[in-house]
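User: Structure tokens for both sequences below?

Assistant:
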Amino acid sequence: MSEEIILNADPRERTGTNKARVIRKIDGMIPAIIYGDEKESLNIKLRLNELTKASQNELFYTQVLVIKTGELEEKVVLKELQKDPARGRFLHADFLRVSKKTKLKVVIPVNFTNEEDCTGIKNDGGVLQKNIREIEILCLAGNIPESIDIDISELALGQSIKLTEIGLPEGAEIQGLTEETDQMVISVNAPRAEVVEEPLEEAGAEDSSDDSDESTSDGDNSEEEGS
């Protein structure tokens, strides 16, 4: 797991659309809410610079975050980050409380390792076909991986790896995955044969020659008819 992303927050007493505008414009902060885990919802406001920096990290959208409000510390995952569609400004953020035992659906990027040592490429000149770049898994909040790493060093020409064959973190699963719904993640295919087209100049030259012959022949016939 990577280092935790930490956001500092202040309690938010003002609620409602007009109050939210005041928080954004006057306070220079972003209204947010923390809910779930059978606890009372907590209205907070976040520092704009911290939220902006955190949102630039891909892990912000998939990992467990820490929000500190005074001495209170909440472990959460982002549920929704609202933006102004015209200006791109942050409007509001929703966070869901989690515990280590909370199971979450998260989309994790797939990372293919040892491509340069792949047998099918190195020995047979094969070409990789990557069909899946990210996978949605159900896993414990305390065990969310940064990526799903797939070693393809031993993958030979004509071979592939399917979803049912990849390793997942302990306690994680791909919901609804069966032999019938299984999908190919990556494969090593034979390179496509190059098709060399015949030059068209010769054919054009032959056509011109034929036209010339026909023209000459027509001229000869005309002379014969005239004589």
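Moving on to the next sequence.
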Amino acid sequence: MPNQKNIEQVAELAEKFGKAAAIYFTDYQGLDVANITELRSKFYEGSVEYRVAKNTLIKIAAEQNNLTGLDEILAGPTALAISYDEPTAPARIIKEFTKKREKPNVKGILFDGELLPGEEFKRLADLPSKPELLSMLIGLLQSPMTKLVRTLQAPLSNTVQVLQSLKDKKS
């Protein structure tokens, strides 16, 4: 018979699975307390939730969200890096953190409802962030408009320059 604490944790995890843009399943074993604390603070700065949970509870919560195929990922200790806004933020944080250390290993990624292998986190870490993508889009949209405005202004400025040169000649 499941206890109340586990029932609450499953409900909480199921809710997080439903809201998350991306969930990174990591193996944190081998990190000492200082490293885990540093990693948690980096995740906190990046608006990413990092928590350890029992594999059976994770599996039940995933099944409640119609997610299957987690059996291989949920072997050994598992911590979840959950991002609600920026799905690539955990990948960038983990990549930066593993430059100096070997852990945590990414066992798998639930990215926009699709299950990806853990090795994909390096590719996701190299993707631009959402604000960077938006600024690139704005730049692409703004460029043709700027060219159009310059093209429309050119005859006017040419006319003004001709009138100015005539004025200078007469004076």
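User: Anything stand out in the second?

Assistant: The chain has a mean pLDDT of 83.
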